[in-house]
Each structure stands twice: as C-alpha cells, then as structure tokens.
Design goal:
single chain, 240 residues, alpha+beta, Double Stranded RNA Binding Domain, Ribosomal Protein S5, domain 2, 4-stranded mixed beta sheet, 9 strands
C-alpha cells in the first residue's frame, strides 16, 4: 500500500520488502533488518532506496530518505511507456511493453510497485529468470533508463519521425474511452425494465407515495331524549 511521505510535493512510497539477517556473536544471535522502498510522485519521477537498521521502522525510514535522494525523471507517453524495453540485473530480466488506455498494469508485486509509483497505468510486463524482488526492481529500473521520446530520437539521428504505432494506438484508445466531465462520476447503465409495474409498491419494489391527509369535523352529538313519565297507579275501588 502506498504511503504519503511528503504532502507538499505529493511524494509517496511503497515498501517492496523487509529482509531479516542474523549474525552469530559470542552472546548469541544478533538480528538486523533491511528494507527496500520505492519512492515516486506518480508523474514520471521515481527513486529506489535500500537501507539497514536494527529495527524495521528505522530501516524503512532510512530507505525512504535514500529513495528521495535518488529520484530520477523518466519519459512517459500518456500513462504508458513509449516503446518496448528490456532490462537486466543479475539473473533477472524484465520486459516492458506499451498498452492502450484501460489495459491496466499487468505485472508482479515488485515490478508493479515501480510502475505505479512512476505513474504508469497501462503496461504489459514479462519477467524471466530469478524472481528475487531486489533483482526485479533493479531490472525494471534498468529498463526504464532505456526509454527515449520521439523528439530525442529525431535529434540524435537527424531525421523526422512521424507518429509511431504506439502513439496511434494510444490515441485510438483515448477516443474510445467514455469522457467524464470534471466533478461528475461515471454511472453504470441502469435497467429500467418493469419500473412501470413496480410503482404501486408491490412486493420487493419501492412503496408508493403517501396520500394527502384530510381532517373532517366530527358531527355534534344529538341531544339526549327526556326520560318517559312513569304510568299512574290505578285507583282503589270505593267501599260499599
């Protein structure tokens, strides 16, 4: 994972690996750690640092400082390499090939760390020989040192070179990619089939809108009826 080490200049770093070594002394074993870190600004500048210390954090910090001191700019072509290059270091060999926009970086962990810190987003790679991450990183740097722009080749050879096949392929790829205006996010296509049947709030669909609430006055209660009068008692017959 990339780590920002300088917010003012947007310099990030990625730790390729931490290596532990031990030495046997009279009192036992003494351990030390070495760290390899790739530092870059993702805009064409990159540096590799390798440092040792008795603790891992100190080794990583020293490697980051060394990587910043060794940062070098390399020519790029629209987030890819301008032409095919091949680098060697020890028993490792790394080949970098340009790719059209949208391809991505197809590489292993060590080679990917170098390319991503450099700012390359589309590149095809192939590694041969040793898979030692130290050798792969240095072989990738050796390949990047061989990159040349079209203008530099024209100046060295004294000839005029038209648009290369890589430049034409990159332009076609950019034209085919969807354009997103600043401030807007790209949205995936939305399936609207059957929306008209789900508007009523059926099972699994959105609920329908709530109707307006109306308040009606309750009717006034009817007046209570007067109680009926009790019937009169019959008169007793007169005595004879």
């Amino acid at each position: 994972m990339a780590e920002i080490i300088d917010e003012t200049s947007s310099i990030e770093s990625t730790t390729v690996g931490v290596f532990r070594t031990s030495s046997t002394v009279a009192g036992g074993r003494r351990f030390s750690f070495a760290a390899m870190v790739v530092v870059g600004d993702k805009h064409g500048k990159i540096g590799v640092g390798y440092a040792k210390s008795n603790q891992v954090p100190q080794a990583v910090e020293k490697a980051q400082k060394e990587g910043r001191r060794k940062m070098v700019a390399y020519p790029l072509l629209r987030k890819t390499v301008p032409h095919m290059v091949e680098g060697h270091f020890g028993a490792s060999k790394v080949r970098l090939l340009p790719a059209t926009p949208g391809t991505g970086v197809l590489a292993g962990a060590a080679v990917r760390a170098v390319l991503e810190m450099l700012g390359i987003q589309d590149c095809l790679t192939k590694s041969y020989g040793s898979t030692n991450p130290k050798n792969l990183v240095k072989a990738t740097i050796n390949a990047l040192e061989q990159l040349q722009t079209r203008e530099k080749v024209e100046a060295l050879r004294g000839v005029t070179i038209g648009h290369t096949m890589v430049e034409q392929a990159v332009e076609r790829g950019l034209a085919a990619m969807p354009q997103v205006r600043t401030g807007e996010k790209m949205q995936a296509p939305k399936n609207t089939l059957g929306d008209e049947r789900r508007r009523g709030g059926g099972r699994g669909g959105p609920r329908g809108p709530r109707g307006p609430r109306t308040f009606e006055e309750a009717p006034a209660p009817a007046p209570a009826a007067a109680p009926a009068a009790a019937p009169a008692a019959p008169e007793a017959p007169a005595a004879g």
